Structures are given as C-alpha cells and as structure tokens.
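Quick one, probably user error.
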C-alpha cells in the first residue's frame, strides 16, 4: 500500500475507534440512568402509620421518595425531622399532635409534599418561633388541604424557594400579640404561592419579610390580633383577590416597591390605630380595583412615591384616604369615594405633587353643563375640619355640629388653610363602573 494510502487508512481507523468509544460511553450512561430509575422505582413505596409503627418511626423507616399514609386518629408528633423527599398524606381525620411542647414537623429537605393532615398544638414560646411546620433552606415544598388548629405559628418558611401553601385553614385562639405567632410566616423566601387559605385568630394572618416574587391570592384573613397581612422589605410581590376583614389593625405594607395589589377587599378594621390598608414607604406600585370599606382609615400613605391608585372603591370609612406630606407623585384616578366621613386628609397645606383626577365624590355638589360626565368645577376633598383634627384630635367631638359646617362652608368660599393644589379638576358626576 502506498504511503499516502496507508496514512488515510490509519486516519479512518482512528475515526472509527473514536466513534465506537463515543457510542460505548453513551450506552454506559444510558445503563446508569436506567439503573437509577429502576432503583428509584424500587424505593418508591408506601409506609403506613399503625400496627406498632408510630408517625416518627414511619418517617425514619421511609426512604427518599416514599409516601407515608397517616390513618384516622390523633398521632403524637414532636420535632419530627423530615430530611429526605417524602409525600405525607393524611386520610380523613388524621391528626398530628405536638402536645403543646415544641414543633411538629421540621423540614430540611426539598421536594416534600404534605396533604390532608390536621396539625394541632405546637408549643407557645417567647424565645423560639415554634411552628406546626417549619422549613428552612429548602425548595419545592407543597402543603395542600391541611388544617392547623391552636398552633403558635402555623407554617414558618425561612430561606426557601418555590413553596406552595394551598387550600389550608388556620385557626388560633391567642389574645395577645406577645403570646401568638403568625398563620403563614415567610422570611427570606423566593417565588412562593399562597392561595385559597383561610386564616383566623393569629397575630398576623400572613407575614412576609425580605421575600421576593410572592403571589398571595384568594385567601381569607379574618379576626387576627394585629394585621391580616403584614409584609416588609419584600419587592415584586402580587396580592390578588384576597379578603382582609375585622383584623386588629388591618393590612400593613412597608418598605417595598413594585407591588401589585388588585381585586382585594379590606373591610371592617376599626380602632384608634386601624387601617384598611397602611402603606409605609411604598414606591412604584399598583393598587387597583380593590374595595376598601368600613375601616377607621381606608388607605394611609406615609412616605409613598410614584404609586398608581386606580379604580378602587372607598366606602363608608372614617377617613377614605390619609396621605401625608412626605408622599409625592402618587396618582389617584377613577376611584369612587362613597359616604366617607372625611374623603381625604393630609397634614400639610403646602404644595402637593399627588394627583387626584376623574374620581367620583359622593359629597360633590357641582354641575355638568356640557354633559360630558365630569363636573365643570374642581372638587377640593380636604375639609377644613380635617386640618383641625390633625392639629387637635380631640376636636373630633364637634363632628356633627353646626359650627363645623359653617367653618367648612367659609373655607370653601375663601380657602386659606386647605391645600388648594390637592384638588380633582375633573370630578365624575356618577360612580365609575
């Protein structure tokens, strides 16, 4: 064979050898994956509580990926550690009891699923955040169709991501903030979903701190000691279609930006420091299509900037909106202000950079000669009496007096103290539908 033909022949052999080696490696990799799948299939089994196997023993016995079945009845569970992926399913009436001592489940593994269980009596503590379920540093936890009764904290999530709490109910009976925990508590979490839960009797119904991209929707937070919802330093979160009713101080949203709050109901939060919705240093957020009714103060804004407050209804509140002078460039448009004692209040008569436009005011007495649906005269929603109350709260006792009516009439005729820049230039003649 000529030398040049021999070179080509050797090169061909080398290429064939390399291809064969690649095929062998792929076959080996496929064999390993198939073996792992078989191993996983072999280990995925059901472990049943009962017949001498208590709940803690069943968890210890189970392998990663197993399902634990908890039958009807009350089962003691104190500080049970879940350190591997498991599915824990309760049959009708299955209850885990913490005996009021400490925590019930402590989860340190990802891909855990918990369904259909009732959790009772995690221990109250002044130094430890005991919870029925506490998860730290994990991902992909799913808790569904569970019930939480008389626990200190219901669910406590820390430094975790992609967790779901869905279709659960929480009921506690604490009377003091210091001796009560939160229903659902998140700290430093990402991408969580909390939906269709009912929470009552806790310190805060739902609490978030240093969390991102949470979706809170379809929940009912009722009769909690402090806030129905309380979150701080939590950007880019969305709160949709929730009911917050008869909580001690309403809902507090603090030190956050890029928040979306739509379709919620804030109702019947009464008390000297109660709000339907309290906004503290909130920026670049959207508060739209909410119903805020029957609260001491409907919406309270302190240090809030560049927010849009559109298509909301403020109905029968003591104060519809309290907006402080340190808030700027907020846009109130297409809202309905219906039968509030004071529609808008502020603590300053100086230049306002907040915009009120095209809102409906039930107390507006102007006219619409050109029939375009908007009043021909601007509406000034801040009454003189609200300025007096800000400076001297005890003057509220004069609310229904003829003297106050005369003062308000005089101020409307010759405005001196009320902020003339805080006015709606295009007040609607009919409520926005």
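Nope, works fine. Designed sequence:
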């Amino acid at each position: 064979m000529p030398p040049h033909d021999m070179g080509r022949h050797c090169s061909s052999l080398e290429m064939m050898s390399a291809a064969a080696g690649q095929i062998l490696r792929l076959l080996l990799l496929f064999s390993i994956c198939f073996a792992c799948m078989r191993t996983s299939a072999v280990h995925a089994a059901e472990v049943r509580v009962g017949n001498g196997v208590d709940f803690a023993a069943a968890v210890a016995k189970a392998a990663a990926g197993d399902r634990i079945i908890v039958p009807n009845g009350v089962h003691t569970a104190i500080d049970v550690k879940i350190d591997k992926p498991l599915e824990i399913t309760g049959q009708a009436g299955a209850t885990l009891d913490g005996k009021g001592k400490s925590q019930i489940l402590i989860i340190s593994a990802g891909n855990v699923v918990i369904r259909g269980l009732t959790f009772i009596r995690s221990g109250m503590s002044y130094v430890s955040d005991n919870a029925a379920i506490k998860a730290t540093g994990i991902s992909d936890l799913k808790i569904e169709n569970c019930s939480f009764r008389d626990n200190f904290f219901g669910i406590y999530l820390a430094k975790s991501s992609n967790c779901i709490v869905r279709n659960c109910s929480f009921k506690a009976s604490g009377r003091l903030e210091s001796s009560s925990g939160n229903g659902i508590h998140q700290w430093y979490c990402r991408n969580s979903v909390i939906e269709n839960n009912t929470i009552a009797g806790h310190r805060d119904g739902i609490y978030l701190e240093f969390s991102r991209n949470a979706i809170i929707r379809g929940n009912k937070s009722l009769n909690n000691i402090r806030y129905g919802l309380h979150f701080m330093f939590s950007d880019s979160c969305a709160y949709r279609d929730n009911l917050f009713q008869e909580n001690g101080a309403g809902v507090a949203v603090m030190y956050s930006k890029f928040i979306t709050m739509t379709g919620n109901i804030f109702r019947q939060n009464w008390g000297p420091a109660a709000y339907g919705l309290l906004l503290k240093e909130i920026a670049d957020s959207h508060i739209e299509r909410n119903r805020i009714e029957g609260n001491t103060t409907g919406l309270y804004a302190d240090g809030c900037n560049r927010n849009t407050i559109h298509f909301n209804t403020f109905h029968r509140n003591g104060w519809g909106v309290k907006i402080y002078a340190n808030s700027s460039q907020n846009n109130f448009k297409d809202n309905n202000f219906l039968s509030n004692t004071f529609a808008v209040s502020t603590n300053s008569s100086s230049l306002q950079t907040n915009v009120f436009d095209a809102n409906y005011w039930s107390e507006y007495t102007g006219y619409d000669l050109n029939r375009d649906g908007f009043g021909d005269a601007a509406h000034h929603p801040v009454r003189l009496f609200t300025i007096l109350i800000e400076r001297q709260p005890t003057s509220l006792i004069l609310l229904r007096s003829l003297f106050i009516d005369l003062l308000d009439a005089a101020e409307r005729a010759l405005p001196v103290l009320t902020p003339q820049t805080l006015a709606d230039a295009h007040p609607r003649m009919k409520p926005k539908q």
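The longest helix spans residues 3-43.
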